[in-house]
Amino acid sequence: MKHFTPEPRLGKPPSAGGLFRPGFFCLNLFCLNLFWLSLFLFAAPQAVFAAEEKPNQNWHRLTEQGRKLLYQGDLSGAAQEFDNALKLADSFDQDDSRKAVSLSNLSLLYKAKGDYEKAEGFSRQALKLLNRRPSKDSYMFAVELSNLAGILTEAGKYDEAITLYESSIAILSKVKGGDSLEVAAVMDNLAVLHLKLKEWDYALKLSEKSVAIYERKLGGDHTDLALALGNMATALSQKGQLEEARQASERSLSIMKRNYGERHPAVASAMDNLAGIYIKEGKLAEAEALQLRALDTFKELLGEDHPDVAICLDNLSDLYTMQKRFKQALRRAEDALAIAKKCYGKEHALSQSIESRIVSLKEKTSKAD
Predict the structure, then answer these.
(1) Exposure of 134 by Cβ count < 10 A (0-12 exposed, 13-18 middle, 19+ buried)?
(2) Which uninterrupted H or E stretch holds 255?
(3) Quick one: DSSP state of residue 24?
(4) What is the CA radius of gyration of the chain?
(5) 207, 231 in Cβ contact below 8 A?
(6) Which residues are CB-neighbours of 105 under 8 A, at least 6 positions away?
(7) Which of the 8 DSSP states describes residue 49?
(8) N or C: which end of the chain has fewer CB within 10 A?
(9) Dist. CA 242–CA 346, nearest whole Å
(10) Residue 135: what pLDDT?
């Protein structure tokens, strides 16, 4: 499953969190870490275009509205805004950076839809444009390399994704320094890729490096650190180091609460991911309580039909299946599927995954009766 709430992490904290939870595939943290560099391009007009012509206000409006709709899970609405922004950008100078921004935005949109072929195509177009600009911006190029690596990761093209992540890290190390926050973020993304490959030791090594950089640069109470701790907790959990994993996950949750309060999507995601570790420890009642609180928060703050609600419902369905509460599990899964189809369509990986669960649950429910 895929769980994302894109939001830039340059200059302000993200508005949601979460992480890759093997077996649950709750990818909010992963995607957030993955997206923040590429979503820097959303903020690029102010930072990059200062020396260029006055930015077109309509392009800004379309881009920001598209970003807002993407965050809300309204992919159709976001597509319309981003398409219009790209059409407008086509009227600018051939090498205007805003066209690359629009292409990158569309790549993120199609990645969210699960159409990795289109996402890859838009990202490669953005890279080509950025590479040929007379005043090539190595930072923006590294950003888009990371974006493309994330798309390839989702598409299962791991070898090229690793190469691109490593190239991005090399460029950012040269431009920003090897212990920069930007390097830490891409390194953390690379760690999650290695989690997907079940290379727990190397994933943990990368996560620990990211955590160390964040602690040195940001202190012990920053949301970026919380995100990295979440990914580190996943690696520790997979290595069977459950106590250390729980401590890292609980620390991640505590940081999110101190920054955002009790009612926030980032806090809900951190709770949902801590629940995954509780399940491994056999603390099923505690896990259910966390997941129900997370579900309530997602519904209240993001709406009943947000993708994050579908993910949380599906996680609950998985928990109830473990407890042999098949009828409850089936109801949760059917609710999750309805939302996933509405947000992504029936062909999306999330929808197909939930549908497979429903087929299995119907068989188990029938046998139980």
Answers:
(1) exposed
(2) helix 242-260
(3) T
(4) 20
(5) yes
(6) 41, 42, 63, 66, 67, 70, 82, 85
(7) G
(8) C
(9) 36
(10) 61
Among candidate residues 29, 37, 47, the one with its CA nearest the CA of residue 185: 37
Q: Please tell me the distance from the alpha carbon of residue 344 to that of residue 2, in angstroms, as a whole number.
A: 11
Mean pLDDT of all residues in the chain? 84
d(CA 172, CA 232): 22
CB 11 within 8 A of CB 182: no
The structure tokens listed for 130 are: 């950025």
Strands of 110-266, DSSP E: none
Q: How many other C-beta atoms lie within 10 A of the C-beta of residue 191?
A: 28
360 has pLDDT over 80: yes
pLDDT of 119-135, one tens digit each?
999 999 999 998 887 66
Of 344 and 336, the one with more pLDDT: 336
Amino acid occupying residue 252: S
Asked if 202 and 194 touch (Cβ cutoff 8 Å), the reply is yes
Which residue in 201, 198, 257, 206 sits closest to 228, CA to CA? 206
What residues contact 348, with CB distance under 8 A and at least 6 apart? Answer: 113, 114, 340
Inter-axis angle of helices 307-322 and 349-368, to 10 degrees? 30
- Amino acid 263 reads R
